[in-house]
Amino acid sequence: METTMASLGQRRRSATDPVAHRTFKIATVFSTLMLAISILLFIVGYIVSPWDYHFSFSDDSHVGVWTRGLDSRLVFFNDAEYGPYRGSIIGLVDADGNVYPPLEREEAFGDSWGIYYRYFKSSDSTIWTLMVTLWYPIVLFAIMPLVGLVCSAVGRSASNVAEPCGEREPPVTRVLKS
């Protein structure tokens, strides 16, 4: 029994290393802040449209938020006038099956697992769109705050149950002596 209490004391001292504790707190605060931003963007997706409101990094790189059903997504796209590609017409086909303007390159992935990608290159223009669900950052950034809550709850209950140094007699021994 004493070995167990001594190892508990050892574990508690190493768990309260000030540098590790401070690093964990900073990471938890950062993660909580990013979680709040992700949730805010998720809600904003229901209010605004990336065709009307988006942030431009340059002339051919823009980001917005778009919602479809219960899924809000970050939308990255290259043409602010056209907006994110969403399955609209980008060319016409004649009776012989020729596409105008002719596509030099076409790539597509998704819509699966919260990721949607389309890339079209013709002789006179390029259109690309990448959409990523906001559920990924919400789940990722929720991990540290949840771990912090669990650790603080376990720490509070452990401090109420056992003494850190193991100097007290086990409760069974005290009861038997009385």
How many discrete domains? 2
How do the strands of the widest beta sheet line up side by side?
1-2-3-8-7-6
Helix content: 40-55%
**Number of E strands:** 8
Radius of gyration: 28 Å
User: What gross morphology would you assign?
Assistant: elongated
Would you identify the regions where 5 or more consecutive residues have pLDDT less than 50? none
Order of helices and strands: HHEEEEEEEEHH
Let me know the average pLDDT. 81
Structural class: alpha+beta
Helix count equals 4
Strand content: 25-35%
Described by strand count, sense and barrel closure, the largest sheet is: 6 strands, antiparallel
Cα distance, first to last residue?
20 Å
